[in-house]
Design a protein that fits this description.
150 residues, alpha+beta, 8-stranded antiparallel sheet, 8 strands, globular
């Protein structure tokens, strides 16, 4: 059974390396490119996806901005950004990816109820990618920055 959980927490400023060429939707074809670009050590840090807030507000989950991984070192490369530090609204969803609109809706309802404004991107990351055998046990963490001077 799917569950959802919402939390607000302060986050650090990790460097993220980006991959935003989504010409191919098949992850089995993207993975070899990521392995060549990032290396297996980088991939072991985990791969997440990000999506614009415009798409989130419009409940359009068919067009993601790209993939990211935590950078292993502080060198600046062309496809590297620093995820801003600050307060983030985090949602956790158990279940298959088609359940993600449920948690996004709850997150948007929460921000409206508590007069919070969101900024930046929604960052998604699987928390248990490598340890599950049933897709219904998949846990996704979603992080969206809260605009603090709103």
């Amino acid at each position: 059974m799917p569950f959802t959980l919402l939390k607000i927490f302060d986050t650090f400023r990790p460097s993220l390396e980006l991959y935003n060429d989504f010409a191919e939707d098949d992850i089995s074809r993207i993975f070899p490119h990521l392995k060549e670009t990032w290396g297996i050590e980088q991939i072991r840090m985990g791969i997440g996806s990000f999506i614009s807030l415009d798409h989130v507000y419009n409940m359009n989950f068919s067009e993601y901005g790209g993939l990211y991984t935590i950078a292993l070192n502080n060198k600046q490369v062309s496809d590297c950004i620093i995820k801003p530090g600050g307060k983030y609204l985090c949602g956790y969803q158990k279940g298959t990816w088609d359940k993600l609109p449920v948690i996004y809706k709850k997150m948007l309802d929460y921000t409206e109820k508590h007069s919070l404004r969101l900024t930046g991107y929604a960052y998604e990351a699987g928390l248990n990618d490598f340890v599950i055998s049933d897709p219904n046990d998949y846990i996704t963490k979603i992080m969206i920055q809260i605009e603090e001077n709103a």
